[in-house]
Amino acid sequence: MGPRLGVNIDHVATLRQVRGGHxxxxxxxxxxxxxxxxxGITVHLRAxxxxxxxxxxxxxxxxxxxxxxxECAATPEAVASVVSFQPQWATLVPETREELTTQGGLDAxxxxxxxxxxxxxxxxxxxxVSLFVDPSLDQVRMAAKLEADAxxxxxxxxxxxxxxSDPAPELARIKEAARLxxxxxxxxxxxxxxxxxxxxxxxxxxxxxxxxxGHSIVGRSVLVGFExxxxxxxxxxxxxxx
Length: 242
Ligand code: PXP
Hints:
alpha/beta, globular, binds pyridoxine-5'-phosphate
């Protein structure tokens, strides 16, 4: 039994936003992921709403049977939105407008006073809180001190290692951080940049209970689904007008 899988559907919404229309529908993708066995759905509700929209979150909360996890910045506006949507989980992440994707983990040590209040507000709204942090023992200790229910260890550095370089030191950092987080009583997740090639070593760390994977699943789905999509159009051409 490996870890549970949370599927991040942000980039289904990215594809929709490119044309500003209705397709592909992220809620449909979430239901397909759930049907395929995913144990959770994650969305990042960014301040600039560049992919996931409020309406997506509202619908997801209504239709999903698996827990919904909303990633957001620790700002008053984002936290108020998350509270209004009442997901089962919120994951606090650093967020800047210029980034293409989340860059690095939260500095929970530097931001401790601010994060303490945000974690308390979310928890008192009955939302469990995860902090996305780099795999550092100081960050994990601080997350426990701030009474986070979980930490999500950033696997970005591991995933971005150049081909041929030794992953052992970064894997050791992730393992040690996972062990400490588990010992401190938090749920342990990991994610960022995971794909079919690099996920095995992370999935076999026993303390890691869940992985959040997005881009590689959405990217792969374009390839494994491409033939079927072309065949559907060919059938429609052959059948002609109804
Ligand atoms: N975890 C967090 C906190 C993230 O911000 C992201 C990216 O939105 C992911 C996991 C998923 O990363 P990826 O899309 O690279 O699989």
